[in-house]
Specification:
Strand content: 15-25%
Distance between the termini: 44 Å
Order of helices and strands: EHEEHEHEHEHEHEEHE
Number of strands: 10
Helix content: 25-40%
Structural class: alpha/beta
Shape: globular
Radius of gyration: 20 Å
Number of helices: 7
Oligomer: single chain
Largest sheet: 5 strands, parallel
């Protein structure tokens, strides 16, 4: 049988994809991170499904559950918050399933940064202002950043920076980006994006840290810094321009 790594979306239960919901409703076993995946999603599981909260399980225990379900002939819905392609810890699970000979499939989901952009009513790429988005995080004691991927280096590009897992380090983020973006650069933080308790903070690189601390935001948040967040004067996209020749391939 198959293990399905399903992107459960950023928080709102109805932001799972149709494909993800269909697989979830047909899987006799579901593994989910109770601290991140909305409990409402579990209502989509079959009535007799085995539900396993992975919040307190290490990688070996999780692998045991996946291999066990496969041996019993059961499909598995392995729910991950956001989209499995970014900061999801899916790689180590897939590696172990490869070693065990267990087939798997990845079902994409709505990533947190996309939900944050939606909450801000902003397109992250704006013609003539910014066409590059960098998804990154900050170094922590547990996981260092590879050489050349520190914020001071990435900031030299001037591109829109999107940081996951960095809210409690907002002072460090501001300090490393200020020399490249300037104090007046637009910045925003969206915590619990798409959830009922969503928090939206808008400001500049000079003011955003104070707002984050005042709001008590320390986790489940996305930090964005870049000029496209405040762009008001820009050229229309060529895609829908009346000057575009729509007969040319």
């Amino acid at each position: 049988m198959t293990v399905y790594f399903i992107g459960a979306g950023p928080g709102a239960a109805d932001l799972i994809t149709v494909r993800g919901a269909r697989i979830l409703a047909a899987s006799p076993v579901c593994l989910y991170a109770g601290s991140l995946v909305p409990v409402e999603l579990l209502a989509e599981c079959p009535e007799e499904a085995r539900l396993i909260d992975t919040a307190d399980l290490d990688i070996d225990r999780i692998t045991e559950e996946l291999v066990r379900a496969h041996a019993e002939g059961n499909d598995v819905a392995r729910l991950h918050s956001g989209d499995p392609s970014v900061f999801s810890a899916v790689n180590e699970q897939m590696k172990r399933l490869d070693e065990a000979g267990v087939p798997y499939e990845v079902v994409p989901g709505v990533p947190a940064f996309a939900a944050a952009a939606a909450a801000l009513n902003r397109e992250l790429t704006v013609p003539t202002v910014g066409q590059t988005v960098i998804l990154t995080r900050v170094a922590q004691r547990a996981t260092a950043m590879p050489e050349g991927e520190d914020l001071a280096t990435l900031g030299r590009s001037g591109a829109l920076i999107v940081l996951h897992l960095a809210a409690r380090y907002v002072d460090r983020v501001v300090g490393e980006l200020l020399p490249h973006y300037g104090a007046d650069c637009p910045a925003a933080v969206v915590a619990m994006a798409s959830r009922p308790d969503e928090i939206i903070l808008r400001g500049t690189l000079d003011s955003i840290a104070g707002q984050v601390k005042a709001a008590g935001v320390i986790r489940t948040a996305v930090i964005m810094v870049g000029r496209t967040l405040g762009a008001e004067q820009f050229r229309d996209s060529h895609l829908y321009s009346p000057e575009r020749d729509r007969h040319v391939c």
